[in-house]
Amino acid sequence: TCKSFYLVYGLSKYYHTEENIEFDMGHSSRKISIFGETFMGFHHGNCKIEDLPLTFAKMFPKEWGSCKYHTIHTADKHYYMDKEIKGVRMFQSPSVSSADRWHDNMNYVGNERTVVGCLYHVDEGRSLTIEKRY
User: 110-131: b or e for each residue (b if 16 or more CB lie within 10 Å)?
Assistant: First the structure.
């Protein structure tokens, strides 16, 4: 969406002097990052998320095949989920925002407002998950 592009664009300008930070401003709804032995896929999650592992594996076969661990991060549903689908860890971030009128009308209320951060070890994959509730 336009908002996410402008957020990434603004961050890229703010961190333009940092050589170790890269921003992918491409139009694809699927982004990836490789960290050591871990393939990390990122998608908004506004789809059937059970199909994402195969989609990422077929779109990025070299990167997928080079990694021992595979994780896919989504966030669309605004609730916490962490499950494994045939060896691929699926992580869905909860939302930190409060419910607006649409969410209230649709009865999407009551979830904990939480920010979740995941730390990855270069050789052992995800090693720590940290939560901050609001």
Answer: eeeeeebebebeeeebbeeeee
**In Å, how far from its chain's centre is CA 130?**
15
**Could you tell me the pLDDT band of residue 103, with boundaries at 50, 70 and 90?**
confident
Backbone angles phi, psi at 30, to 5 degrees: -115, 125
- Residues belonging to the chain: 134
Asked if residue 65 has pLDDT above 90, the reply is yes
Please state the pTM of the whole predicted model. 0.87
Cα gap 91→63, rounded to integer Å:
19
Q: CA-to-CA distance for 9 and 23, rounded, in angstroms? A: 8
d(CA 26, CA 4): 11
